[in-house]
Design goal:
By secondary structure, this protein is mainly α. Helices cover 64% and strands 8% of the residues. A hairpin with a 2-residue loop joins strand 2 and strand 3. It starts with a helix and ends with a helix.
């Protein structure tokens, strides 16, 4: 098994840059490929098939890929309407095509939910409820999961905005709105990180949410299913 893992890692390291380089001319002409085109070209068939529905949904919502440099410390990022990948970082920071697929999935989910978390305040309210349950169970989390929760909290501070849509009459008159931060990372990690998903599944469902499920992970999945249906073109 260790030998197979080593061979898989070597195959990935030896081929990922060349596979991504296929899109160089297209990207240089700003004719960016969709997430589906990149996934189908780069990933082995068995891995691509496993996540094909996600990539097809991403393509229907015009999630494109720019293959160029990203900020130091990142393999990929979502911003300005597209996913950005770094070939060199992908080679040295990731170890397999499964790792690469996880990265693609993470950024694809970012793309699908970006406008929903910002503009859909009913969704934001439900996510706030889920996050409150996560924070209440922080002490029981593993170190890996604690680091994810800390990161989610940090990103919320980076992308904070005034909560105008659910403001009270007093807040509307005074202009002193409560501030809310993005919870995109709560969703992306829930659906791309096994340890975090298991942690969410260990927390009983929130009684404050009128959403079916025996755990907050099941409730979150049902929340996102409803949202995804609303954005499918």
């Amino acid at each position: 098994n260790n030998l197979n893992l080593q061979m898989s890692s070597n195959d990935y390291k030896n081929s990922i840059e060349s596979k991504l380089s296929i899109f160089d001319t297209q990207v240089a002409e700003k004719n960016y490929p969709t997430i589906l085109e990149v996934a189908e070209e780069v990933l082995p068939k068995d891995i691509f098939t496993k996540y094909k529905n996600l990539y097809e949904m991403g393509a229907r919502n015009n999630i494109q890929v720019d293959i160029s440099k990203v900020n130091p410390g990142f393999t990929a990022s979502w911003g300005q309407g597209m996913v950005t990948l770094d070939k060199t970082t992908a080679k040295f920071s990731l170890n397999s095509y499964e790792d690469f697929a996880e990265t693609l999935n993470h950024e694809t989910i970012h793309g699908l939910i970006a406008r929903g978390v910002k503009d859909n305040y009913s969704l934001s309210k439900d996510l706030e409820n889920i996050m409150s349950s996560v924070e209440a169970n922080y002490d029981s989390a593993s170190e890996e999961v604690k680091s994810i929760i800390n990161y989610i909290q940090d990103t919320r501070k980076e992308f904070i905005e005034s909560n105008i849509q659910t403001a009270t009459d007093e807040e509307l008159e005074s202009g002193n709105f409560k501030e809310i931060g993005s919870l995109e990372e709560l969703i992306t990690y829930a659906f791309t990180n096994t340890a975090f998903a298991k942690f969410l599944d260990s927390i009983p469902a929130s009684k404050d949410l009128n959403i079916k499920g025996n755990s907050i992970f099941e409730q979150l999945k049902n929340i996102i299913r409803g949202f995804v249906k609303s954005i499918v073109n």
